[in-house]
Amino acid sequence: MLSKTYIMSIDEQPATIPAEIEKILTSCPSLPSLPSAVVKIIDASKDPDIGIAEVSDIIRVDPALSAKILKLANSPMYSIRREIHNLREALSLLGLDAALTIALSFSLFNALNTNDSSETEHNNYWRRSILSATIARQIGLKMGLPNLEDLFLAGLLQDIGILALDCAAHTLHIEHDQPLTTHKDRIKFELDSLGVDHSNVGAWLLKSWNLPKKLYNAVLNSHSKGNKNNYTQKEQDFFNCISISGDLADIWLSDNSDEMIESKLDEAQKTLNYEKLEFSEFINDINDFLPEMSTLFEIKLVNDETREKILSEARSLLMERNLHYIKQFEEYRNQIESMTEQTKDMEEASRYDHLTNIFNRKHVDYLLTEEFSTASMHHEPLSLAYVDLDNFKEINDTYGHQTGDIVLKGIAKFFSENLRQTDILGRYGGDEFILLLPGSSMDIAQETLERLIEKLKSNFYIEINNKTIKITVSIGLATHMDIHNYKSPEGFLNAADKTLYKAKRAGRNRLMIDN
């Protein structure tokens, strides 16, 4: 029985496997190996000084490979506007690094595409691998990542460890009677049996082939998602594209694609931290590439009915989400409108005196500052009347505070009903009121206020316990931008206040003017 003590966290895993498993795999006669043509391509990809002529000579040796690179260069995957007619032209437009990686992808596929297992398992392996490669490249394109062909190759090879383990399954005692229906089932079976899974084996194999570190690390991390220690952000983005591509490939391979689409794409967006991976657009792009990929790799990936079914399911999901978002937006908008109304109501309420329902002192001070500034700017008169109820303390002491409140509300109502709409009335203190009369000169304000004093004396009274209480007021009047030009709102208010006390000392129930 093989030891299972090798299990470690993904951040600790090197591209190695336990010596016992390595010994069995290296002695397996059917372990995948590289033909000399593939080795030449790998060596060429590592040569920084290699030119188009040398790369063309390496690829031209294999006419089928040359034809596939030409076909791919003219496919929707590259969206090149003019047709490419020869290999040299394709190399120039694709770039040497990309062309070599593409050549390596096709060459490795041809070298590894041997059918030693059941035909169904063999086809399913390569269908998932090619789908993963196509998806990884498209995600990278959407995310604006560089080296898209490296993503394609890494996606293609991420499960190569399965081929290595299958060739030594009998010796490793990991043969299974029942087919492993999902990729997660396979991973769990391998971990339970060996203590490692095919991502470890695949990374070890690619490293032994002298492939770039970036590729075997991508395979090593292909079963983990999210950020990993000891890697740069670019490397993590690369690895995450690979790790999620296999999950998304299962959408096209599953019999229950409708159940998988939402969860898989949500997981992809969360893992990649990429919110703009639009469902239907992304799936439509992949669907467009699949017929070309099927032709290039000479394997039927999915049929037209499956492609259309998945696209339809994605569109339905998008429609459901859009309806949900619209409903959610409406709810948020209603909440915001309600909160706005509540805020307005609170702001409005904060301006008023709760007893008399006229402006309170704070808002009167604000309006006084605004009106004072406007009058000063336009050289227009502004009159301010400081009003005080006569003998109000005696009313409170004799009849109680409830009667006092009735008097205050009555006075506020009286002035509200007898002023212009442009005039401003506020309660400034216990029994003190402020009247602002914009545009009223001293003479006009005096005439208005004297008329109100007389009307109040003649018509305003309160009946309490069969007793009639007459109410009178004393008023101090000051006018800005007329006889006086006050320096500040505070000085203006203070002048009216001093004049009020002159009225009270003169016997109450009268108007005094600051002249």
Overview of this structure, please?
With about 525 residues, the protein is α+β, with helices and mostly antiparallel strands. It has 22 helices and seven strands. It has a five-stranded mixed beta sheet, with helices on both faces. β2 and β3 form a beta hairpin. The N and C termini lie far apart (about 115 Å).
What is the makeup of the main sheet? Answer: 5 strands, mixed
Strand order of the largest sheet: 2-3-1-6-7
Question: How many H/I helical runs?
Answer: 22
Unreliable sequence segments? 1-12
Q: Which oligomeric state applies?
A: single chain
Order of helices and strands: HHHHHHHHHHHHHHHHHHEHHEEHEEEHE
Strand fraction band? 5-15%
The total strand number stands at 7
Q: What is the percent of helical residues?
A: 55-70%
The CA-CA distance between the termini, in Å, is 113 Å
Query: How would the global form be characterised?
Result: rod-shaped
Gyration radius (Cα, Å) is: 43 Å
The computed structural class is alpha+beta
Q: Averaging pLDDT over every residue, what do you get? A: 85
Write a short abstract of this structure.
The chain has 515 residues and is an alpha+beta fold.
